Amino acid sequence: MSKNSTSPVRKATLRGKVAVIGIGISPVGKVPGKSPLWLAADATKKCLADAGIEKREIDGVLSCHAMASPFHRFSIAFSEYFGIQPTFSNTLQVSGATAATMFNIGAAAIHGGLAETVLVVGGDSLLSGLTPELALRSLTENRDQQYEMPFGIPVANTFAMTAHRHMKEFGTTPEQLAEVAVVQRRHASRTPGAQQIKPITVDDVLNSGMVTTPYHKLDCSLISDGGAAFLLTSAERAKELEIQKPVYILGGGECHTHEHIFLMPSLTATGAVGSSRKAYDMAGYGPKDMDVAGIYDCFTGTVIMMLEDLGFCSKGEGGRFVADGQTTYGGQIPSNTHGGLLSFAHSGVPGSLFHFYEVIAQLRGQCGDRQVPDANLGLVHSLGGGYATNATTILGTERTL
Amino acid sequence: MISLEDAMRKPTPAPDADTNAFWLGMRNSQLLLQYCGDCGNVQYYQQGLCRDCGGENLLHRPASGRGKVYSFSVVHRAPGPAFKVDVPYAVLLVELKEGPRMISTYIGGNPQEVTFDMDVELVFEAITDEITLPRFRRA
Question: How high is the ipTM of this complex?
């Protein structure tokens, strides 16, 4: 008998190895006169103050690209701007999914010994740093130059075609899509600094003008400025630093199923199924255990499909789940309690970092009158490129370890 | 960042090593699909090897041009200035009779009349001397 066949298989895991010890956010919405690098730096200053450490203690920097910044190596340009010289750094690019990958990869780098304290940072100024026309076109620029872009596909279009198919297959209605925007606007009204706080109704959404069927203007996320920053370190070091409320990374997963929308295996079941399954398996928890969620919400239908694929409800039930109030306070999974990309802010790829900021603040019990009671387990799902890219991170307080 | 000048122009396909034959075919009014001689897989997206088996024994055959609308979205707000004159237009995800899906746009009718599973047929539209785009009309 070989030695291998008798020894138990020990699966490598990040569960509980790394803690988030600091969070910071810049002003969001319309922030004129500030560059993406400044927005990232402002968030980082606040993050360092929150963690109670000095910038020289950062030895790793992970960031995402900024459309309104000329730098290809944003993480390197940021480090120069901020006056640090990290020994681990990269600028990651899987579109909207980049946020969760930064947390997962940052945790892996710390656990693997590449860095001790990793700054996860992003900032962009789509609203003030680009004209509306350039912002729209920049958001479209990642579609294929030969097979997709010549046909005038707006950024909304790939998501619109998947939502449209969802409506055909499962009877999801425009009213159910609109309800996502209504719930999140209500959430945003309690979030200091949110870009859109005026209450809206389902009729407001349906009468807001068509962008690309089935999406109306208010089914679409905002265009914003803003940045956010986080500090990750090992669970041991978090203890040494006497961090009051460390939030642990319990699980992470990715799943990337296609590049082109016409090669997406199914228009209504996405890679979020695979990425969340990996994250749940690593965390040792399931969807029903989650207390709060940050769900990528570039469009209303995206939230409905993700609620299904992340396992919060069964396939085809997402529209009814939202209409039943299951994604707000008192429901099964309060989601996007800050208002999300639809109402809080959407500064491009960094937009999903705001979901992390909110979920971590919820797990620390710092959300004031929008606090979800007894929130101990949270999930953030990021995605991009018409569901091409998916990444999930599961976070928990000390008692969930 | 892209320049405003670039944003004002519609993107035109630039043929590359994987797509030269495809765009040449389009100029000659043939939409060439790749058939894998080893496993029978059919590809619309042109590549140097079969996505299923990795084989390089790929043969080009023209598509029948027949398909159905698998999904669609009617664009009312253009993705940048270059497409403003075209709205509203219907972007189609067509499932070809041969199996593969492709992105195109609807021509020859009101975009509002497009429905799921509608039968469509291929139309060749020359946009420059070199490039002909595949469009679809109601069959």
Answer: 0.95
